[in-house]
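Researcher: Next entry: PAZ domain-containing protein (Megalurothrips usitatus).
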Amino acid sequence: MAGRGGRGLALLEALKKQKEASPGDEATVTPPQVGVTLARGRASLLQSLAAGARSLTTESDAPSQTASQTSTSTTPTVGLGRASLLSLARGRALAQNEPAPGSTSPKLSITEGLASLSVEERQERPPVIRKGEAGKLIKASANFIRLSCEPDKGYFEYEVKFKPECDSRSMCFRLLNSCRDSYGGIKNFDGHVLYLPIRLPDPVTELNAVHPVDGSTVKIQIIYKKTKRMGECAHFYNILFNKIFKVLNFIQMGRQHYDPAASSKIPQHRLEIWPGYVTAIDEYEGGIMLNINASHRVLRQMTCYDAIQDALQRNRENWQSVVIRDLVGACVLTRYNNRLYRVDDVDFNTNPQATFDDRRGGKTSFVEYYRTQYDLKIKDLRQPMLISKERKRTGPRHGEKEDEKLICLVPEFCYMTGLTDSMRQDFKIMKDIATYTKISPNQRQLALRKFIRSVKENAEASKVLSDWGLRLEDATVSFEARVVPNEEIFFGNKTIKVNAQADWSRDACSSNVLTAVCQILKTLLYLVVAVQVF
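Model: Predicted structure:
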């Protein structure tokens, strides 16, 4: 059947002429090449992808071209849609990512690149110091004490490995302590990371320890990691000074440490004042320093039992409510162990005759406990007990779980701390307290020198510092300060110099201004809220 004309008729006539020219080659006849027109838009993108796919196919079949040259294959024409476009794009990406036969794999090149990298320690830059020029130079001193380290010591970090592995932290401590002669004995160890004040001669130190349970040999590897700067060890140095305060028999209350042996009493007000210090170590412009300041704690020579008796006399009907109001939330001090507790509740149904489970698994009363442990005798056997909740975090880093333990306290042995509102409003009491707590700069300097002297004269406290190669300076930091000149105030009719207190209120009231500013009439806008009248 003949076509109706046009492009189809032309194709049919061309096929007939080709068949007549080569009648024996029908099996190998290929379709005629039709002139390709330039496509635009999406068609152009499809053509470019198709051409790239044919070139990739030709390159991949290059080794087997001998077989393809003998026989001619006819490639079927497939329509190109969106799905075909995506498949061609994926094929091109996979072909480009395939490595050449003699090339290096990307993973190997990345590994070689990482192996060539080197980690260098950060170089310290000198601090930027800016000093003024105005004013008069004077000598001054600050409440800072410089800490220095011996040249051959520092804070060296090591990694500890056990073979076979040891999961028990306490067993790791026992195994490492058995080899303390090999690393000096002075250490800071958490079960995995070890800090020493000295650097071991070898980067990897291998030790042999005997397991205390089965007698087997455990190999210990101490691997050097890095040397920490003094500025990076501020937290550890603060822990060292907390240990020094314990050696000096100071009592810690919050972040302050107080000396009960140097207390001052005010008998007319039944008060007692403990002197102490508040300290913090950090890195400053001049290096690592101890920031220290004098502090005081006011204690009352009044027990919680006295407060209960006072409430009973004032309001016999509602005395329990008064006791709860006065004691709950207060901080009390037990002098038999010099510990500070917070009162969370008052148990009126329990008295010192009640029993509890002791460590031996038996039953004992509070009366017997205080008599055997502290040689204290409870006078009133019917007084209520104070309840304090002690919260302690447990876990690998003391942050996973919080355990709560209830502690029963006898009011007779608990001393009140702090001042009441009525005491704060009493001018005479506050004046007598100020004679001990408000000290002059010279007295403050004497208190700081006393602390330095007490640390250096105590052999055990000095050893805590010397074990880690630290040394405390003999005096506080001295430096040059500047007293700037008094500022000048310009008025309309004169110029005055402000005094050292920077007070010029009298001149502001009696002198003319430079320019008078007229007062603008102000209007106050407000909303009237409807109030229901009963």
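Model: Note for the record: The chain has 16 helices and 24 strands.
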